[in-house]
Design a protein that fits this description.
- This protein has 113 residues and is of the alpha+beta class.
- The chain contains four helices and four strands, in the order αββαααββ.
- Strands 1-2 form a two-stranded antiparallel ribbon.
- A hairpin with a 4-residue loop joins β1 and β2.
- α2 runs antiparallel to α3 and α3 runs antiparallel to α4.
- The longest helix has 15 residues.
- The chain is globular.
- The chain starts with 6 loop residues before the first helix and ends with a strand.
Length: 113
C-alpha cells in the first residue's frame, strides 16, 4: 500500500482503521499512516484529541511504531498532579482524587476532596 490513499481505497477501509471513526478522519491502515497521524495531531479539534491519542497509541502498538507516548498520554489524561523539582507536589494541601477512564473511551474525571 502506498503512503497516500486514493478516494476508492479510503472508502473501502473499515471505520475501525480510522483515528476518528465517527468522522472517518486520520486513516491508519499501516505504519506510515500512524506516523502521519502523529504529525498532524496538532490540527485535530481539542475535543477530539483524547480519542485520537488513544487510537494513535493503539495502532502504534499494533504496527510497532515508536511514537511520543508521554505527550499522547497527557492528551488522554491531562489532570495529572504537577511535581516540583524535588519530587513533591506543587500544591500539597489540595488532594486530587482522579480516575482515568481512557481505556473505556471516556474522558478523565476527577474530584477535589
Amino acid at each position: 500500500m502506498d503512503d497516500r490513499l486514493d478516494t476508492e481505497e479510503r472508502r473501502e477501509l473499515p471505520d475501525d482503521l480510522y483515528g476518528l471513526p465517527a468522522r472517518r478522519e486520520y486513516p491508519m491502515p499501516d505504519a506510515a499512516h500512524v506516523r502521519a497521524a502523529e504529525a498532524y495531531f496538532r490540527y485535530c479539534p481539542e475535543g477530539l484529541k483524547p480519542e485520537l491519542a488513544r487510537n494513535i497509541l493503539k495502532f502504534a502498538a499494533a504496527y510497532g511504531v515508536d511514537v511520543d507516548r508521554s505527550f499522547l498520554r497527557k492528551m488522554i489524561c491531562p489532570f495529572t498532579p504537577l511535581a516540583s523539582r524535588r519530587g513533591r507536589l506543587l500544591f500539597p494541601r489540595v488532594y486530587v482524587r482522579r480516575r482515568c477512564l481512557a481505556q473505556s473511551g471516556e474522558f478523565c474525571k476527577f474530584a477535589v476532596s
